[in-house]
Amino acid sequence: LAWLGADVIKVEQPGRGDPGRTVMVGSPDKDSAYFLGFNGNKRSITLDLKNDDHRLVFVELVKNVDVVAENYAAGVLERLGYDYQALSELNPAIIFSRIKGFGTYGPYSNYKSFDPVAQAAGGAMAGTGEPDGPPLKPGPTIGDSGTGLHSVIGILAALIQRRSTGRGQVVEVAMQDAVVSLSKTSMCGYLETGETPPRRGSKVTGRAGAGVFRCSPGGPDDYVYIIALSTRRNIWEGMMKTIDRDDLSQSPLFNDPASNAEQINEVIQEWASSVTKHQAMAVLGDAGIPCGAVLNATDIFNDQHLKDRGMIIPINHPQRGKFKVIGCPIKLSDSPVEITPAPLLGEHNSDVLSEVLGYSNDRITELNL
């Protein structure tokens, strides 16, 4: 929301702040790269919601904002007296976004969740891994980020509806629900056959000429993913021409590509082993063959294409100095937003209370935030 231009006020615990500030941190006196990556363009204030004076500040903020978003464990905000009914009495137009591991109703609703839990219960892990191996957690945190994205979609829809009704509403997204939604492609086989689809690693089921292929010099991430499906004659012939194997473009192997997948893939592997992953992507990409080098974090943060696209952004942070963060993938032609550093803890206490609530300097000093 902040990347899209919203004024996002992050309410944090005084003295400690968001636990994300210390996740995977390299230095105890600096905010973590994790926190910097997820909190750009926001403002930070500190409020203790168990302190009467601070609670009054929170109430005044609710009266003056469009959205309240929370992701406490089930029941926490309600015990503080801030359920949707209470907030809507303060501000009938308020949109209340709540994220829960398993939602607020249903048999699992009291269960707590973290990203891996949501990935397990949402179907993502069952569909990830090799056929003869255990379920694996996908690398991306789709349980966390996927839930956040679904919440943003719901908030934007609620804001548009409010233009017609004048009323706010609850936007609830459960982490399990979000992962199920993101995993539905991998579960289509069940709807077709009534049987649980097996894990298939990086392979495309029943297709030759598609998969991950090792490249030179053979490091842990020296691979390229190629989709030169032998069932797509134009792509396959283009692939064979590009790797100087025109002699195979009309081979009898391709009369039954599914049965000959291993032999067909060996042809591609032989070529891939002779080039780097970047060379493979360049050569095949220029030839119209869908492919992608397997880029690791070092590759990503030094990739010129991503830099040109504004996906790798250098920022100047008061603690970390010059620092790289990942930019916004949504490119708006008429209203781009400059990426700014994540806030220090309580950095905007005075600004928010004076600008949003009109508090005097003396009043702000009295609160001792």
UniProtKB/TrEMBL annotation:
Tell me the SUPFAM superfamilies matching this sequence: CoA-transferase family III (CaiB/BaiF)
Q: Give the matching Pfam families.
A: CoA_transf_3
**UniProt GO MF annotations:** CoA-transferase activity
Keywords of the record, alphabetical order, are: Transferase
Task: Give the protein's recorded name.
Answer: Formyl-CoA transferase
Species name for this entry?
A: marine metagenome
